[in-house]
Every structure is written in structure tokens, then in C-alpha cells.
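Sharing a chain and its predicted structure for anyone who wants a worked example. Both blocks are below, sequence first, C-alpha cells second.
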Amino acid sequence: MLAGLILKYILRKKLKLVFTSAAQRCRGEYSRWLIRRMDAVIAASGKAKSYLSVPAKVVLHGIDADAFAPVLDRSVLRARLGLNPDALIVGCFGRIRSQKGTDLFVDAMIELLPRHPQAQGIIMGGVTAQQQGFVEDLKGKIEAAGLGDRLRILPEDKGFTIAPWFQASDIYVAPQRWEGFGLTPLEAMSCGVPVVATRVGAFEDLVVPGVTGFLVDPEDLVALTEATDKLLSDVQMRSSMADAARSKVLGQHLLKHEADAIMEVYRDLLHTAAGDTELRTY
């Protein structure tokens, strides 16, 4: 941003400056000073916008809804992934660490699985060396509960796409304590999977409570468990929310929607520019 301001106001280059913010934190005075001098600001989520002291346009990330789409025969896919074709699968995917709330998912499933004999929980994602102890503690807790065969922590899928794991799930849980944006609920919704998510990152912009899933406060294990229980207990609710989730993605969250919204910002700036003006983004 500073380089752009020097070019524009000192070297008199014909520029329009755009800043995109995904951060969800209060900035220092210097950063706020720079942001106030931008010609336009884009926020990656409503929560990110709330931390800005200037007008901003919210542009959510989009998704490839062709790659993340419901499958016709889930049982065949599950067999390929080594999952029970007849189980009621609750997924929690992504990096496994405390920030992602994986321990909250484990605690919720330990409470719920005895109530729902058909249900299984699947955790899958990357584990860094620093998180090995965290994962081993989770495995120990699962074994102590006698649920080692129904609540599994699988190695990260190194394939080209993680889409099959969402497609194979009946319910997706995003129990994050903190998140910058968070694409996994959107990936699940695009695959026609209802979502239980915490109110972090962009999740409040993605999940419509009671329509495409449920939102709960971060760290609220009781609410997380109750919301997941509702979906496990009601096949009709799961079905209607699955359809609504897919429809919301197709109507609001495609890559084209993101690109069009960004281009609208650019065009507005170019239309107000005098002469040949170059557009720079940060």
C-alpha cells in the first residue's frame, strides 16, 4: 500500500488503489492510515469488514461447484474410500489441531455415537510434527471411550481433491475456534451436505441457520453436540438442508460470483478515473 501511495501521490502515476482484507483483528494506526487512503477496499467476509474503519465491499470466496458436487451413488464412493456404505457419516476435515476444534468434534461424537448406533465420525486432514501429541491424545480419548471402530482419524488424503470425502458424508461439522475464511463448510454445502459450524471466519456468511445447517458459538460444546444431534436424528431435515445447501452455493457462491463482484469494484473505479489510469491491487 505504501508503494502504491508513493507512486500515485509523489510520482503522480495515474493509479487507483484497491486493498483486500481477510484479517479479523484490530490493526495499528499505521495500517489504518494506509487503508484510509485506498480508493476501494474489499473484505473477504462480513466479519473481516467489521474490523475495518472504512467503507468496504464484502466479496466471499467462490467454489468450483462442478468439482464439489453431489454424487449419484454414495455407496460406491464410500466403498472406494474404505468407508461403511450403510453408516450415517459425520465428517470433520482439514488440518488437525486445536485451532480447528478437532478435540471439540471428538468430544461431541463421544457423546453422540452411543445414541446413534448407525453413526460414524470421520476425521481426516494434515498433521504437522508439532501436532502429533495433540492427535495422540485424541486417539487415546477415542479408545478410552471404546469407539475406535466408529470414530476414526484417517491420514491426510494426498490426492488432487478432497471432494470425495465431502461427497461421502451425511453431515459436516466445522468446530473451529478461529478461522480466517474457512472453505470447508462451503465445500460440504456444494456437495449437498448440511453443516454445523461455529460463528468464526466467513461461516456466518455461508451457513443459513435452520436452512442449510446450524451455527453455534465457538467453544460451545453443548450447542455443537445438540445441533449435530438434531441432524443425526432427523432424516427429513438432513435431506431438505442438503438440497438448500447445494442451491445456496449455486445461487451465491460460485467462482463466477466472486469474480463478477471483484470486477464490479474495478469497473466502478475505472469509470471514475480520468484519462488512462492503471489499477493496482494489494
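Comments welcome. The two ends are 6 Å apart (CA to CA).
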